Amino acid sequence: HKPVLAIVTYPDGKYGNLPDAARIGEIASSAGVPLLVNGAYAVGRMPVKMADLNADLIVGSGHKSMASAGPSGVLGMKAAWRDVVLRVSKESNKKEVECLGCTLRGVPLVTLMASFPEVRERVNHWDEQVAKAQWFAAQMEDLGFQQLGEKPHRHDLMAFVTGRFYEISQTVRERGFFLYKELKDRGIWGIQPGQTRTLKLSTYAASRADLEVVLDAFSQILKKYS
After folding, report:
1. Residues 151-175: tens digit of each pLDDT
2. What domains, with CATH codes, occur in the chain?
3. Cα–Cα nearest to 36, from 97, 78, 87, 88
4. What is the pTM of this model?
5. What's the burial of 186, exposed, middle or buried (CB within 10 Å: 0-12/13-18/19+)?
6. Surface-to-core class of residue 218, CB atoms within 10 Å of its CB (0-12 exposed, 13-18 middle, 19+ buried)
7. Could you give the dihedral angle defined by the CA atoms of residues 47, 11, 136 and 127, in that order, rounded to the nearest 10 degrees?
């Protein structure tokens, strides 16, 4: 059976790898299959043009890459898909059938809209964000951790194998929770309690000074248990 839709996640949400979406779009187009780009970690962070990706539809995340106060998404499409995706009910021309139950309202919508000017401006500084991410990855590898995925990395979202932390967790009373506790004691939050084997993180919007605090904390923890 011929596929009705191709989907590519750009970048992927685990490693932050950026696939060749434009090439995928070319292949899909030649096969007569529309392409949807899941740009949850791209739209609002980096310059993205649907035409450059040879996409028919694109999805962005208002809470991952903008400033919506609640889970939200944005959808873009070529004009050819407008009457399909945004078709209205035969009973009411104010109800878009495919969007029923999924529309945004209230505070999540207002905060999403309020973030648009800043979001539009900050994507112009994407090169700086990439350079910062690459610097951070290099510092992490100097500590003995392994950055997974593309190298040099082209996105702020990254994953690391943190085997040294896992080895420590096998020798302490708190087991895997020791890392959460050590970071909490240093005023650093966000890590999942019990996690030591791998870390997934984003350097977006954090200053180098902020990231140096994190790196120093990692270094101190390693020295403490060495």
Report:
1. 999 999 999 999 999 999 999 999 9
2. 6-124 (3.40.640.10), 126-224 (3.90.1150.10)
3. 78
4. 0.91
5. middle
6. buried
7. -10
